[in-house]
Specification:
Structural class: mainly alpha
Distance between the termini: 18 Å
Order of helices and strands: HHHHHEEEEE
Radius of gyration: 20 Å
Number of strands: 5
Shape: globular
Strand order of the largest sheet: 1-2-5
Largest sheet: 3 strands, antiparallel
Helix content: 40-55%
Strand content: 5-15%
Length: 232
């Protein structure tokens, strides 16, 4: 997907998120985030948006400290959310293609990284807000949903911080059947460590390796459409 497509998705989903937050009210529980009320979701998303806006508009090589969540009156929450979302969309839309700033996952460029990451971040929380409001979920475009799965597997779960680790080596093959996106294969080969008895046991410390392939596999360990997207 192109940077402009991610920014447009961010623009649309941010507006839908704010609409759902307004309809649900600040005390509405968020089913997908059991410890949160709507005000918690709004404060989180609005703070993330402002944090990333600073990273884009004030480039730096090191991670920008994440700000404290603000204390806001209930009637200030949604306007504050809309304001931060607007500034983020504007920052990404006007940022130079050769932007150099901090990121935390591999990407073609920092601008591509932040446009993609914030599109998915906002999309997921838009779905949270719509469920809290009890309204129908706005469908995700198939290509965008497939890209979210790609970011989850090749980005987050390929890193050392991921807690998704099998006890034994295995391969999970994914193929979307509603988009021409490449298929993927996620292989976990835990590093063997020597036990006192002389046998080897798998280590859970080694990140899984995920590869994309345009070849259509003959069979799949797991097969589903991108409508069952499970990214965060």
């Amino acid at each position: 997907m192109e940077i402009t497509e991610f920014v447009e998705t961010l623009r649309l989903d941010g507006g839908l998120l704010a609409d759902a937050a307004d309809e649900a009210g600040p005390d509405a529980p968020v089913p997908t985030c059991p410890d949160w009320r709507m005000r918690d979701l709004v404060r989180h998303v609005g703070t993330v948006h402002r944090w990333v806006t600073g990273i884009v508009t004030e480039p730096q090589e090191q991670r920008r400290p994440f700000p404290e969540l603000p204390e806001l009156a209930d009637d200030e929450l949604v306007p504050w959310l809309r304001e931060g979302h607007h500034h983020l969309v504007l920052a990404l839309h006007t940022a130079p293609a050769d932007l150099r700033t901090w990121t935390f996952l591999p990407a073609p460029s920092p601008l591509a990284f932040w446009a993609r990451r914030q599109a998915h971040e906002t999309s997921v929380h838009r779905a949270d807000a719509q469920q809290a409001a009890g309204v129908a979920l706005t469908p995700l475009p198939a290509r965008f949903a497939a890209d979210g799965i790609d970011e989850l597997l090749r980005g987050f779960h390929a890193g050392d911080r991921s807690r998704v680790r099998p006890e034994t080596p295995g391969t999970l093959r994914l193929r979307a059947d509603d988009t021409p996106a490449p298929s993927g294969r996620c292989t976990s080969r835990p590093t063997a460590r020597r036990a006192r008895s002389g046998t080897t046991r798998p280590s859970r410390r080694t990140p899984p390796r995920t590869a994309r392939s345009r070849a259509r596999p003959r069979s799949c360990t797991s097969r589903c459409g991108t409508a069952c997207r499970g990214t965060a």
